[in-house]
Structures are given as structure tokens and as C-alpha cells.
């Protein structure tokens, strides 16, 4: 029986071509195969731990509960069949593991690359498994804020904010994330919004304080009376909660 595949480089999390036979291995002894569709042109397979996902994500805990959803029933049946045949799920080839499909988790319109979404979701899985090595993730310049914003989005969507927030705050303390960095004079509004959004969800108060002030001073284009909203172009950070904006995306208290 062949051993599980080697863990792919962290820099490949959003870019590697993966298959059921050669997935991105988050846990070498994982007993579950996640098939994730980001868009019509990008899909990834991840070898992960069932128990870790259920312990650290409320979403996965519910989805993989055999008493609640068909996915949980199917996974439990497949693992039971492997064990009854005296085969350890942690040691079988990945394509023989139970598979769960997660579809259409790309973010925003075409402006956000599905590869960036893949990188962010891959980071989420690594954080949940306690295997993140931030220094080896190849992100540069403007990409860093959007990666963390996408990570925050997935943490909320998959009900794993406490686990991700704890890791991100630790990384901030270690200097991998410059939470207190002041915005550049020519910083685009989207980048400020990404930092505020991530800061609100993941507990980076310096990002929220610094970049919300910058947004208010520069005056958001979304607050203009003649702004035309197109819901097909929305990103998660386009409307900020936490007292930063009101119900229509205006400064809070100016509806």
C-alpha cells in the first residue's frame, strides 16, 4: 500500500493542481477528502482530519454529523466499511477515503482571483489543523491584506472564527502581520476595507482603528449621494459592521 503523498509546499496551497489521487495533504493521516470548488475553472482536493474539522468548525461539525446531514451519514458508512475490512482510514490512499464536496465558495465577482480564494481556504485548513507556517506563504504587497480578508470571510462562513482569530492574533504579535501599519496616502479604498473587515472579525483592533479613520477622512465613494450600487459586484468587505457603517453602507448614524 503506498504511503500518503508528501505535503505540498505552503506556497502551492492556492495554485497546485490536485486530484483525488494526489490531493493537497493538510494532514498526512487524514481520513477525509474535501473536494472544494472555487469556480468553474478551479477545484482542489484536500486530505484532512475529520475529527479536527468537527472539533474546530461548527459548520463542519454539523455537516459531518451522521444524525443531521446525508454527508455525515455517507462519511460514517465509508469509514465503517474500511475499518470492517481491517483497513486504517489514516493509511489508505486518498482516493479511497470518504469524500465531501464543498461547492461555489469563490468570493465576489471576477475581480477576486479564484487562486487567491484557494490560498485563503488552504490557510484556513492549515490553521484548523495547527500546521500553519506563515513565513512560508508567498504573498507580497497588496496581496497580504486581501488574503487575510478572504481568510476572515472563510472563518466566518465555516463558523471557525475563534480558532482563526487566535492564530492571527498570535501572528500579529510575532510581527508576521503588521496590524498597526498606517495606511499609505495613496492606499485604495478596497484595501482599507479589507483591513477593517478582517480586523473586526479576527480581533486586530489596530487595523480597525487606523483604517476606519482613514476611510472616514478620505470619504468613501459608497457614501456619495449619486453612488449606484451593483449587488453583482459585492465583496464581503463592501459593507462593514461593528459600528463603522450603517445599514446602507453610509457612516454609522447617517442613514
Helix content, binned percent? 25-40%
- Give the overall shape: elongated
Largest sheet, described in full? 4 strands, mixed
**Which strand order does the major sheet show?**
1-3-2-4
Number of strands: 4
- Series of H and E elements: EEEHHHEHHHHH
SS-based structural class? alpha/beta
> Helical segment tally?
8
Overall mean pLDDT: 77
Q: Roughly how many Å is the radius of gyration?
A: 20 Å
Uncertain runs: 1-15, 138-143, 248-255
**How much beta, percentage-wise?**
5-15%
Spatial separation of the terminal alpha carbons: 64 Å
Q: Any descriptors?
A:
disordered C terminus; alpha/beta; 8 helices; 255 residues; disordered N terminus; single chain; four-stranded mixed beta sheet
Can you describe what's shown?
This protein has 255 residues and is α/β, with parallel strands linked by helices. It has eight helices and four strands. It has helices at 50-56, 58-63, 70-84, 114-128, 143-157, 161-173, 189-202, 205-218; strands at residues 24-25, 32-39, 42-48, 99-102. It has a four-stranded mixed β-sheet with strand order 1-3-2-4. β2 (32-39) and β3 (42-48) form a beta hairpin. α7 (189-202) runs antiparallel to α8 (205-218). The longest helix has 15 residues, at 70-84. The chain is elongated. The model is unreliable at 1-15, 138-143 and 248-255 (pLDDT under 50).
